[in-house]
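Example 3.2
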Amino acid sequence: MMTSASSCARILAVEDDPLLASHLQAHLCDSGFDVVLSHDGGEGLRLAENEDFDLILMDILLPGIDGLEALQRLRRRRSVPVLLMSALGDEQNRIAGFSQGADDYLPKPFSLNELSVRVEAILRRVAYERREQSPASDDGSLYFDEGRSDVAHGGRWVGLTPSEYRVLELLWRHREEALSKAFLYQQALRRAYSQHDRSLDMHVSHVRRKLQVAGYGAVRVETVWGKGYMLVQVSA
């Protein structure tokens, strides 16, 4: 059963063993997670740097770029939690993993139940840390914090991902102005717009839902058909 810590959590699993990767994905999806698989270190690093995940499971012995090097590069840009998995379970390799910024280390072979416990523990810790870091404003408006890529309302963080934050922040700066999808993709998602790419629509949907859950209704993200999106002021 999915817990509050894992609710809507998105996980990237970078594992080159296709059988283990399949088992990981099936088990975590059954537990309520949204799981993206990668079988190559270079591809896994690219996904981790350019997409938003709540947790990354990273094997160490990977083709392309090994897990430790991928983690070292990732830490220059992202603070997303990383759980390393490896058959290299001796003390030296565990120390190497933690020194590169790993949040946990799971030696192979491991049971899927133990993996679930470790995943839930990391997500609970992250959720607790976010609750403990109080926003700087509680005046009923939205407080934007670029450092943590989130906004606060009523003294509580809304819980945006970095991409969702960039979308909202861009719409906020251009209130009452229709922004094209191509512009939002380039400026907020930092990639070119493709007609069949639904990522922006998904991020906007999440922003709407999270602002609604937070009880903030002073503005609304409206769809401008044939163009993109616009943030409008809601009349009292």
